[in-house]
Design goal:
Residues 80-158 form the GHMP kinase N-terminal domain. The protein is an alpha+beta fold. 34% of the residues lie in helices and 29% in strands. The radius of gyration is 19 Å and the shape is globular. The structure holds cytidine-5'-monophosphate.
Length: 310
């Protein structure tokens, strides 16, 4: 989905839709000296999205309101990544921030779908447009990387290889659309918690670094069938997520029994993605997974979609 480019007239508001991300390939290497883990990943933006709206407040300050997922529990002050993003753009432009940000959230919180990073990317774009800040793509990406490893991808959307700690992107020209059933659970997993569990399991000799993204990239570039894609999905964090939340195993098995081509933990979890053959299969699969119980909510999504800066 593409963000709007309305000029920042006084009183005007700017809204941008920012998609959730999934990692059809998530290879996790060893912890680096800075504490981050080397990543070799393929990101894809999917149609599940948050909407970030920015309007002038009329006085200095950054104010955040939230509706939807996480409303009432997520911080609205400086601890919110969108707040940090607004502050960063103001600092870059050398202006006093003056903005009311509204986050309408559909992306599950702490679910492995980069909801917080999506809001930060949306706030960067919306505030830059609202305040008419002249900023190039490279500079915007640099600011995004300072906010979090997934934020640069959330700006761009589409499909991309992520390296470094996930912030270095190489676009992939994916030819096709793939359909997913997204099943959330009533638990959350914090990203650092899941990385720590990966390290702990590795010390016990469980799991290894899946560094080669080439087979999956070729599949996307050649418009592979969902059947072929199903065999290439990899997540080095999956064992850690299941170890932290063992109930994920039965959710995954249940979806496979209902006919999913693959069950794949999204990022650091605990959201589970089920790959479907096509949209018709996805609709039927979502219904069967819902009826079976065990998921908090079940959504349909397709990818890739564009990000707000595309
Ligand atoms: O980059 P971001 O702030 O989203 O990362 C949150 C946390 O996840 C980091 O503080 C780190 O503990 C962990 N992380 C990691 N390796 C990465 C990305 C994140 O260990 N590549």
């Amino acid at each position: 989905m593409t963000g709007q480019t309305a000029p920042a007239q006084p009183g005007a508001s700017i809204s941008v839709d920012v998609p959730a991300k999934i990692n059809p390939h998530l290879g996790v290497g060893d912890a680096r000296a800075d504490g981050y883990h080397a990543l070799s990943t393929v990101y894809q933006a999917i149609s599940l999205h948050d909407t970030v709206t920015a309007e002038r407040r009329g006085e200095p300050g950054i104010e955040i309101t939230i509706s939807g997922e996480g409303a009432g529990t997520l911080p609205t002050g400086e601890a919110n990544l969108a707040h940090k993003a607004a502050k960063l753009i103001a600092l870059y432009a050398g202006i006093e921030p003056d903005v009311k940000l509204h986050l309408n959230k559909r992306i599950p919180v702490a679910g492995g779908l980069a909801g917080g990073s999506a809001d930060a990317a949306g706030a960067l774009i919306a505030c830059a447009r609202l305040w008419e800040v002249e900023i190039g793509d490279a500079e915007l990406e640099r600011l995004a990387a300072g906010l979090g490893s997934d934020v640069p991808f959330c700006l761009k959307g589409g499909t991309a290889i992520g390296s470094g700690r996930g912030e270095k992107l190489t676009p992939v020209d994916a030819k096709g659309t793939w359909h997913w059933v997204v099943a959330t659970t009533d638990t959350q997993i914090s990203t650092p918690e899941c990385y720590k569990e990966v390290d702990r399991l590795r010390e016990d000799g469980i799991g290894r670094y899946s560094s080669d993204v080439a087979p999956l990239v070729r599949a996307f570039e050649s418009g592979a069938s969902a059947d072929d894609l199903a065999r290439l999905l990899i997540n080095d964090m999956e064992a850690a997520a299941v170890s932290l939340r063992p109930q994920l195993a039965s959710l995954m098995h249940g979806g496979l029994e209902e006919g999913a081509l693959a069950a794949h933990v999204s990022g650091s979890g605990p959201t589970v993605l089920f790959l479907a053959t096509d949209v018709k299969h996805a609709v039927a699969l979502a219904r069967r997974i819902r009826m079976r119980g065990g998921a908090k909510s079940v959504h349909l999504a397709h990818g890739p979609v564009n990000g707000p800066a595309a």
